Amino acid sequence: MKQFSVTWDVTKEQEGMLLRNFLTEEHNISRRLLTDIKFHGGKIEVNGQHVTVRYELRAGDHVTITFPKEERSMAMQPYALSLEVVFEDEHILVVNKPAGLATIPSRKEPNISLAQGVLAYYDLHQIPATIHIVTRLDRDTSGLVLVAKHRYAHSLLSKQQIAKQIERYYVAIVEGLLHRRKGTITLPIARKASSIIERTVDILGQEAITHFETMGQSENHTLVKIKLETGRTHQIRVHFSAIGHSLAGDKLYGGSIEHISRQALHCTTLSFQHPFTKETITLTSKFPRDMCSMIERMEFFR
Q1: Contacting residues for 257 by C-beta, under 8 A, at least 6 apart
Q2: What is the pTM of this model?
Q3: How far apart are CA 223 and CA 216, in angstroms?
Q4: Most buried pick, 82, 126, 155, 196, via CB within 10 A?
Q5: Domain map of the chain by residue range?
Q6: Which residues participate in catalysis according to the annotation?
Q7: pLDDT digits over 76-116, tens only?
Q8: Helix or strand holding residue 211 (H, E)
Q9: Residue 105 and residue 127: Cα distance in Å, rounded?
Q10: Are strands 167-175 and 280-284 parallel, antiparallel or unpaired?
């Protein structure tokens, strides 16, 4: 698999810095990744010459880091899928995941997942990359998924995620009529003791914060726009169930499948800072067909 490299020019303000500090402080390369670069086939060069991280930089120097080859896990084999690519460059891929497709393989479905579809896409387009999923969605949640094409991009995007700088907006159809136009649900979430899948509100759980705004209502349902401040497993589904408004179709958390056969939840907007260009990337996805059909049948109004 081809090795990825990146080059930076040293500015006057950075003159005199040790190369180690330039890489860790200016470009967020972790010490663990630096160690891998040094001992597992990567390269650290200044002006085309191998140097140590103790090298003292001068203005105008060209610093090039070549990252170690990434190996694919034999446990995850490519599986050809029809992927809807929303954004792509040499560092990042964003795809629109359909409902019914796991983001990564599971014991229940070890051979078909979005991750394996991405690997097949890489092979088809001769992209020398392995899988680095940044944002995940539940199997039956549709919408935008962010994927990094190499380990360094994954590291930078993960730091954004921890700092809550990656914004994801969802649209859901919940049962019943919400009487607040805007609100925030702040309830801790933990794994349910009797299940390996189900989550529940638990005072001993992890902090979970969900912001919402109503977009429209029908006789018995509310269309809701949602922004997550935290990203706990099943967070939206657990929170709305806990306040008495389960997602339509979400039978795991008390929703009815009368009008839709899966939880009516779609990740419609994804916004993040590109880790290399520093540009703010904002991407959107249209509602999937099953949610559109339900909205049309229910005649939602504002």
Answers
A1: 249, 251
A2: 0.91
A3: 5
A4: 155
A5: 5-66, 168-267+293-298
A6: 138
A7: 889 999 999 999 999 999 999 999 999 998 777 667 899 99
A8: strand 209-217
A9: 21
A10: unpaired
